[in-house]
Amino acid sequence: MGLSGASGPGQVLSLDTLVRLGRALHGPGMPRRLPVPEGMTAPLGCDAVAVPARFGPLVLPRLPRVGCVYADEAHWWWIVPSDSDYALDWPAPARYTTGALVPDAPRAPGLIHRPDGKLPYTPPIPLYLAVCRVTGATPSWSRPISA
């Protein structure tokens, strides 16, 4: 794969080229990653759970601990540790995204809650139960198993 303006290995790219490439990575329809706030660490990696904005204020008070929460006009996003979807069937209309990616966002959602401390995570099980509660879904482990 060649880059315009680069003629070989070790070629130095101009600042204009780097800015143009960076903008192309965040163009319309490109997923954006929710940023971990400065001073926080994410040793378990980051995924995200989104709910429609109308559910956000209903989920928030049901949580014993709230990590970083981001919001835009359409969704509220909670940062959870990577692989928090393991053995959990997140109910619609919630969306689970690996890598804390926000698909189809013209700009990154804004941070509306930052916890005290250095970890950005909302515990996934209480979040899952709160999302099930406000959406009227039955937690996956409570559903009958058919043979």
Radius of gyration: 19 Å
* Major pleated sheet: 5 strands, antiparallel
Residue fraction in strands:
15-25%
User: Total helix count?
Assistant: 3
Can you count the beta strands? 7
Order of strands in the sheet with the most strands? 5-2-4-3-7
Mean pLDDT: 84
Spans of at least 5 consecutive residues whose pLDDT stays below 50 are 1-7
Order of helices and strands: HEEHEEEEEH
Shape: globular
- In terms of structural class, how would the helical and strand content be classed? alpha+beta
Task: Give the N-to-C terminal Cα separation.
Answer: 51 Å
The percent of residues in helical segments reads: 10-25%
Keywords:
single chain; 147 residues; alpha+beta; five-stranded antiparallel β-sheet; two-stranded antiparallel sheet; 3 helices; 7 strands
Question: Topology, please?
Answer:
Layout (H helix, E strand, L loop, with lengths): L14 H11 L6 E2 L13 E6 L3 H4 L9 E3 L3 E6 L14 E4 L2 E2 L7 E4 L10 H12 L12
Antiparallel strand pairs: 1-6, 2-4, 2-5, 3-4, 3-7
